[in-house]
Design brief:
The chain has 274 residues and is of the alpha/beta class. It has two domains: 167 residues, 3-Layer(aba) Sandwich (D-Maltodextrin-Binding Protein, domain 2); 95 residues, Periplasmic binding protein-like II (D-Maltodextrin-Binding Protein, domain 2, 3-Layer(aba) Sandwich), CATH 3.40.190.10. The protein contains nine helices and 14 strands. The strands form three sheets. The protein has a six-stranded mixed sheet with strand order 1-6-2-7-14-8, sandwiched between helices. The chain has a five-stranded mixed sheet with strand order 11-10-12-9-13, with helices on both faces. α1 packs across α7 and α1 runs antiparallel to α8. The two termini are 22 Å apart. This is Glutamine transport system substrate-binding protein. Its main location: other.
């Protein structure tokens, strides 16, 4: 697979920007949008590279399932990727203001997010998992989290889930996911609740022997590739590329290289609009 990524470190202070600036995206005709129509030669793609195994840094390079997916889509559509990084909670504000064109970082498609940005068709099906200390016998599922302190990622749907669905619980939110896991391992939080693939991967690797998964999969979720609003042609082209990757086996090949098996929900993914 051709490597189309050129990496630029992004140091951004955009979290506090008003959502009212969303209408500014693409107004200057630069890299932040293509309101005049037509596809660009290069798009600024942002990711938060702490979401293993979707995107992370290894030996000075950014790798992962999401990185391979966006590279393959870029190859198919025919654009170069200018990869930038920021904290997860800065991704959507950056898309709104035109700092980024595309974002791929295990971003759950929600109605609230769709009001300010656009999404491709789903490219991954997920849910939420609970992780607790390996010697904990009191927490067996989500009902046992009431009134407890739960670590998760700042700006995530997991944080919203804790606040809206677990009575009396306190969400300890962190910019970096490893901080959430360390909080549980160090006794600062009772449990971690976050996207299933990341929780499972951490417990199989770094957290083996210190954390365990309890309870059922919560809140079935679809991940989509986020795009700054008003780039309908780009979204359409990426959807076509993704559909082609699913049909010709490229998607399965990438998935197997990171997760070790075929996706169980591939037919459902293909039927979701790709």
């Amino acid at each position: 697979m051709k490597n189309r990524i050129s990496t630029t470190a992004a140091s951004l202070s955009i979290i506090a920007l008003s959502a009212g600036l969303a209408g500014c995206a693409g107004d200057d005709g630069g890299e932040g949008g293509n309101g005049d129509g037509g596809l660009q030669d290069t798009y600024v793609v942002v990711s938060d590279t702490s979401f293993v195994p979707f995107e992370f840094e290894e030996d000075g390079e950014y790798v992962g399932f999401d990185i391979d997916i966006i590279n393959a889509i870029a190859d198919e559509v025919g654009f170069e990727v200018d990869l930038q990084t920021t904290n997860f909670d800065g991704i959507i504000p950056g898309l709104q203001t035109g700092s980024f064109d595309i974002a791929i970082a295990g971003i759950t498609i929600t109605e609230e997010r769709e009001e300010v940005i656009d999404f491709t068709s789903p490219y991954y099906q997920s849910g939420l998992r609970i992780g607790v200390p390996a010697d904990n016998t009191d927490i067996q599922g989500v009902d046992d989290l009431e009134g407890l302190t739960i670590a998760t990622r700042l700006g995530s749907t997991s944080a919203n889930y804790i606040e809206e669905n677990i009575e009396g619980a306190t969400a300890n939110t962190y910019e970096q996911l490893d901080q959430a896991y360390l909080s549980v391992e160090g006794g600062g939080s009772d449990a971690v609740l976050y996207d299933a693939p990341n929780v499972e991967y951490y417990i199989q690797t770094t957290g083996e022997g210190t954390l365990k998964i309890v309870g059922e999969l919560l809140e079935a979720q679809d991940y989509g590739i986020a795009v700054s609003a008003g780039n309908e042609e780009l979204v359409e082209a990426m959807n076509e590329a993704l559909a082609g990757m699913i049909e010709d086996g490229t998607y399965t090949e990438i998935y197997e290289s990171w997760f070790g098996s075929e996706p169980e929900w591939l037919d459902e993914l293909a039927a979701s609009g790709n």
